[in-house]
Amino acid sequence: MTDLDKLQGAWSVTSLEMDGHAMPAPDSARIVIEGSKFQSLRMGAVYEGNVELNARKKPKHFDLLFTAGPEEGNRSLGIYELNGDDWKLCLTVTGATRPENFATSQGSGHAFETLRRAGSVSVEPAVAAVSSAVNDSVPEIEGEWQMTSCSADGRVVPDSMVKTGRRVAGNGDTSSYFGKQQIMKARYTVDRTARTIDYALQNGQGQLGIWKFEGEELHICFAPPGKPRPADFTSTSGQGHTFTAWRRNANP
Question: What CATH architecture does domain 139-248 belong to?
Answer without folding.
Answer: Beta Barrel (2.40)
